[in-house]
Design a protein that fits this description.
InterPro entries: CBS_dom, CBS_dom_sf. Pfam families: CBS. This is CBS domain-containing protein. The structure is a single chain. With 239 residues, the protein is an alpha/beta fold. A hairpin with a 3-residue loop joins strand 2 and strand 3. The two termini are 30 Å apart. The relative contact order is 0.13.
């Protein structure tokens, strides 16, 4: 077999295998259909979608339209093969979810005064803080929206008394959708969480990354839908 054709087929088949894995090994494993479905969930695939679709046409010409065993109606250029191999390496070693997380994570205890949390919202460019009881028992995500909503409900004659209010008091009325993920997992796993929540009509506010992937562990990073924009931007810059 022509060496350049062999390299192309090896890289293409390995990418095909990645697409099967990303889609849970469906019965219909047509490359283009897997590509189309993966594009909806994963930014890496979205970035390379057009190229991979064209490479699929080239692959069909190589495999199905060759004149004999050693004569191909189409042969890929070296730069095409090198690009396909580069895409394959990206899929082999996708970025870690932690690469796109906000770090370090500022969090508070359940008995932290609301005045202290409001001050923290003013000082730090974040819109939510995880709240824990003793021994890192996660009880909720306190967002700036939660604070505003609580204030609007408790306002009396244009003023709000917050002297004795603590974080847990506000969490009683607000439960933003939060999920947890092992910090070592990939950006694919991260994107999957947000996509699944969208399909289930459940707005996922954030994914908190911990060493164990469990809620009762210290937060190592936090990812919001805004952070997912960084995923697309980085992948496009590297494409």
């Amino acid at each position: 077999m022509n060496d350049i054709v062999e390299r192309f087929e090896v890289a293409f088949n390995q990418i095909h295998q990645h697409l099967k894995e990303l889609n849970g090994y469906p019965k219909n494993d047509n490359f283009v259909e897997l590509l189309q479905h993966s594009k909806l969930k994963h930014s890496v695939i979205r970035v390379y979608f057009d190229k991979l679709k064209q490479y699929a046409k080239l692959r069909n010409a190589i495999v199905h339209e060759r004149i004999d065993e050693e004569y191909y109606i189409a042969t890929p250029h070296t730069d095409v093969v090198e690009e396909l191999e580069r895409i394959k390496r990206t899929l082999d070693q996708p970025p870690k979810a932690l690469d796109f997380a906000t770090r370090p994570v500022l969090f508070f205890k359940s008995d932290t005064p609301l005045s202290h949390i409001i001050e923290a919202f003013h000082k730090h460019p974040v819109s939510q803080f995880p709240i824990y009881r003793d021994k890192h028992d996660f009880i909720g995500l306190l967002t700036n929206d939660c604070v505003v909503n609580w204030m609007s409900r408790t306002m009396d004659n244009g003023s709000v008394r917050i002297e004795s209010v603590v974080a847990e008091d506000i969490l009683d009325d607000a439960h933003p959708n939060v999920q947890f993920l092992k910090a070592e997992r990939t950006v694919y796993d991260l994107e999957e969480r947000f996509e699944d929540s969208l399909e289930n009509n459940q707005k996922l506010k954030a994914v908190i990354l911990t060493e164990s992937g469990e809620p009762d562990d210290l937060p190592m990073g936090i990812v919001t839908t805004w952070d997912l924009i960084k995923v697309d931007r980085r992948n496009r810059d590297e494409s």
